[in-house]
Automatic annotation (TrEMBL):
PANTHER family: SUPEROXIDE DISMUTASE CU-ZN -RELATED. Residues 1-23 form the signal peptide. InterPro entries: SOD-like_Cu/Zn_dom_sf, SOD_Cu/Zn_/chaperone, SOD_Cu_Zn_dom. Residues 53-185 form the Superoxide dismutase copper/zinc binding domain. This is Superoxide dismutase copper/zinc binding protein. It comes from Brevundimonas subvibrioides (strain ATCC 15264 / DSM 4735 / LMG 14903 / NBRC 16000 / CB 81) (Caulobacter subvibrioides). Keywords: Signal. The keyword Signal applies.
Length: 189
């Protein structure tokens, strides 16, 4: 098997650490494990293509810390997920399904007895003016890892997606969270 080496660089500054990734002929990835403090920033865009905020993702010892600052949401609760493809062409379906490392893949929902999938995150709350400032943590995803798998900064990247409605954390496939209204790309270069 021939392996091609890819440099895992964030497309959007500021850059944290550079993580080296290798893809084999089957698309599996191996490479350096992300270390605590590795980070990157994704610009959040709405469906009209306007910049509405940012998400900063930082690797911790046991998972990821995700800080989200955004505007332009309807007031109230919104589902937010990590999607498996680093593309944000409106209506953001190009971001694919949730990151899901399990074999077989786990169903959606933080409250699902058979879940959650690796892209599931807690809901965020938008204030009366449509702004949100949130800090989320997940132990089910990494920036990069040594073994084969789907990481945030693998060859096809990933995306942070905010939905129009609250996620009930049980319904399939996305907890009733509705349309994808904000998206931010994190991808390998």
């Amino acid at each position: 098997m021939r392996a091609a080496t890819l440099a895992a660089l964030l497309l959007i500054a500021p850059l944290g650490a550079c993580v080296s990734v290798t893809a084999n002929d089957y698309g599996d990835h191996t490479g350096a494990r992300a270390t605590p403090g590795d980070f990157g920033e994704a610009t959040l865009m709405n469906t009209s293509g306007a910049r509405v905020g940012r998400a900063v993702v930082t690797q911790g010892a046991t998972g990821l810390l995700i800080r989200i600052e955004a505007t332009g949401l309807t007031p109230g609760w919104h589902g937010v997920h990590i999607h498996s493809v680093g593309q944000c062409a409106a209506p953001f379906t190009s971001a694919g399904a949730h990151v899901n490392h399990g074999m077989p893949a786990k169903p959606h929902g933080l409250l699902n007895a058979d879940g959650p999938d690796d892209g599931d995150l807690p809901n965020i709350f938008a204030a009366a003016d449509g702004s949100v400032s949130a800090e989320l943590f997940t132990s089910r995803a990494r920036i990069a890892d040594e073994g084969p798998g789907e990481w945030l900064w693998d060859a096809d990247g990933s995306a942070i997606v905010i939905h129009a409605n609250i996620d009930d954390h049980t319904s399939q496939p996305i907890g009733g969270a509705g349309d994808r209204v904000i998206c931010g790309v994190m991808a390998a270069g």
